[in-house]
Amino acid sequence: MADELNNIRMIALYCRVSTDEQAREGISLHEQQERLKAYCRAMGWHTEVTIYVDDGYSAKNIERPKLNELIRAVKNGEVSQVMVTKLDRISRKLLDLLNLIDLFQEHNVSFISISESFDTNTPSGRLTLQVLGAVAEFERERIRERVFENMYHAATTGKWLTQSPYGYNLVDKELVFDEKEAEVVKRVFNLYLEKGLGYYAIAKQLNEEGIPSKYKKDWSIRAVKLMLTNPVYKGTFVWNRKDSSKKKRTDKKNDEWIVIDDCLPVIIDKEEWEDAQKRVNAKQIAPRAKTSPHLLGGILKCGKCGASMSIGWSGSKNNRYRVYRCSANKNKGTCTSKQYRANEVEDWFKQGLVQLFEFSTNQTKTTLVEQVLQSQKKDAEQAVQNAKARYKRKVEAYTAGLIELEDLNEEKVKMEKIINNAKRDDDKKEINIERLEKQLQKHIQNILQSLDALSIPDAKAFLQTIIEKVILISEGELEIEFHRI
């Protein structure tokens, strides 16, 4: 019985009057309290009532002492009903009112306004609430439209309305270089692309050197990844990328983004930034494979089944040696590939690189041409798709009156140029074999030099920036596949 009494929730009577309403008839604090009490008696409610009074406070916002106290009581589960004489007693702003009603419903609290016969526990009250919700949704959409227009205009004029990213400072709503931070940005991209370090290794190095982040916090994996994927560093403004309407933020579709190129100060050139995105989006190598003492850990594949070659040790207690073994054979028994001594496989790999460097075969040329043609076709298709999406957004902006016809026509010309270039390149399909061979030889030379000069972990990190995978076909026979040149 005691527990039941403790669980009984009170009825909250909320009364408010501002200074300029004191003399008006029918809305004095005393009048409001008497009408609310009389309503409770008429309904036969004998539950304890608690009166919350805000004397001399406007309804322009919800920052009122007693209203905040009432909200805390609702959140603590102490209230069953909230009553007011009129809706405008609790708020004159529809959005504030609906937010409060949402809070009440979340905690199973009904809301009653006796003048409007509004009770969220009744069908008519819920219908009224739905109508109010539709009006509020319309108002929210209008607010979003205005924000969208302001952000779009700000972007086209080079204005930056949020916090400045690392590498920049904000001066009169414009991004300007922070020279010291900009050098750190360049270094992070260099560590990632040239040295082959991962997010964790970069964050660890920056923290060990005492280099602070933007707001003096330690660097994290997330912070490094966000830097490497932020298009601001190549001079591109991107807005409307995230959907924040739900608790968990998600990416919107590409054609909903507002993307304006070449409107911000550039720290990283476009080619380097795009190279970083290719590595970010590539299949990641397991952390254990990165830190193992095996040079080809993480990139060596079985020539019989295509599975990864796992790394380990074999031999007797006094004669242990490193080995590569097909993981499908080791874990499932589904492959008949044998294990190979790691030192021998790594020697075959180095010999293969030397042969590639010294000799250029017709097969190498054919493979290179096929890879580059496929890469060029994919890039051209993506460029056309992006151009059409940008033009579509400009049409929508023109329809909404945000840009002039001249701007729309200019975007159309750009789109047609990209489409024509893609078609012309597809017709030509000309590949400079000599240039490609030189690039390949440069890659191989860099690898051979790194194998001689660097430690195994550093050499592996560098290796993985250039080589996609190595396929172990049989004794002394390997295939080496490079990342796109």
UniProtKB/TrEMBL annotation:
CDD domains: Ser_Recombinase. SMART domains: Resolvase. GO terms for biological process: DNA integration. PROSITE patterns: RECOMBINASE_DNA_BIND, RECOMBINASES_1, RECOMBINASES_3. The active site is at S18. GO terms for molecular function: DNA binding; DNA strand exchange activity. It comes from the Bacteria. Residues 165-286 form the Recombinase domain. InterPro entries: DNA_bind_recomb_sf, DNA_bind_recombinase_dom, Recombinase_CS, Resolv_N, Resolvase-like_N_sf, SSR_resolvase, Zn_ribbon_recom_dom. Residues 10-158 form the Resolvase/invertase-type recombinase catalytic domain. Keywords: Coiled coil, DNA integration, DNA recombination, DNA-binding. Pfam families: Recombinase (PF07508), Resolvase (PF00239), Zn_ribbon_recom (PF13408). Residues 370-453 form a coiled coil. Gene3D superfamilies: Putative Large Serine Recombinase, Chain B, Domain 2, Resolvase, N-terminal catalytic domain. This is Recombinase family protein. The lineage of its organism: Bacteria, Bacillati, Bacillota, Bacilli, Bacillales.
